[in-house]
């Protein structure tokens, strides 16, 4: 076991963890934040996407020990109290989901994209979504277009 301290959504979480524990399991089981979903667990679907030090990462590909000392933002950390983040509002208003399972990951992926490219081209949006969260790309594409002027 190794003691880790990971700041999640501005709150420090300290815990002894097995070296093999994935960040997504740390977030869901030890930090109690179940908004980050587990889909494929093989780095394909993007449902588990969170921000680590401001950049999108698939939390099923990061060990909790690798996140030690880092800042992680989950979908729960985007809202400001009862006020949704502009990207969350955009997904809500445009019904930017299919079954909704990967929506948290798509929102986090969108956040990273818009931070890096405030006015992404259509191809940049497609590329980011394809790399970050496969599935539901057309819905997310339209939602990103709607939200890029809000965030
Ligand atoms: S659960 Fe991490 S990419 Fe699918």
Rg, please? 15 Å
Computed structural class = alpha+beta
Unreliable runs, pLDDT <50, ≥5 residues?
134-144
Domain count, please report it: 2
Query: Per the principal axes of the C-alpha atoms, what is the gross shape?
Result: globular
Record the strand order, biggest sheet.
2-1-5-3-4
Q: Tell me the span between the first and last alpha carbons.
A: 40 Å
Write the CATH fold name of the largest domain: Ubiquitin-like (UB roll)
Compute the number of helices. 5
The CATH H-level superfamily of the largest domain is: Beta-grasp domain
Q: Your description of this structure?
A:
The chain is α+β, with helices and mostly antiparallel strands. The protein has 2 domains: 2-78, Ubiquitin-like (UB roll) (Roll); 86-150, [2Fe-2S]-binding domain (DNA polymerase, domain 1, Orthogonal Bundle). 34% of the residues lie in helices and 17% in strands. The chain contains 5 helices and 5 strands, in the order ββαβββαααα. The protein has helices at residues 23-30, 86-93, 103-116, 122-132, 137-147, and strands spanning 2-8, 11-17, 49-52, 55-58, 71-73. A 5-stranded mixed sheet has the order 2-1-5-3-4, with helices on both faces. Strand 3 and strand 4 (55-58) form a beta hairpin. The longest helix is centred in the C-terminal third of the chain and has 14 residues, at 103-116. The radius of gyration is 15 Å and the shape is globular. Residues 134-144 have low confidence and may be disordered. The chain binds FE2/S2 (inorganic) cluster. FE2/S2 (inorganic) cluster (FES) is lined by residues 38-41, 43-48, 58, 60.
């Amino acid at each position: 076991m190794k003691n880790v301290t990971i700041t999640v959504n501005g709150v420090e979480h300290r815990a002894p963890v097995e070296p093999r524990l994935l960040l997504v399991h740390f977030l869901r089981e030890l930090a109690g934040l179940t908004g980050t979903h587990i889909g494929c667990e093989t780095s394909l679907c993007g449902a588990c996407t969170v921000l680590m030090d401001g950049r999108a990462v698939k939390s099923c590909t990061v060990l909790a020990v690798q996140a030690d000392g880092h800042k992680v933002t989950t979908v729960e950390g985007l809202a400001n109290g009862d006020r949704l983040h502009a990207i969350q509002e955009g997904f809500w208003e445009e019904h930017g989901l299919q079954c909704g399972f990967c929506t948290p990951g798509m929102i986090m992926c969108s956040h990273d994209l818009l931070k890096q490219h405030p006015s992404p081209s259509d191809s940049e949006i497609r590329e980011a979504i394809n790399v970050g969260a496969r599935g539901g790309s057309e819905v997310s594409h339209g939602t990103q277009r709607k939200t890029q002027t809000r965030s």
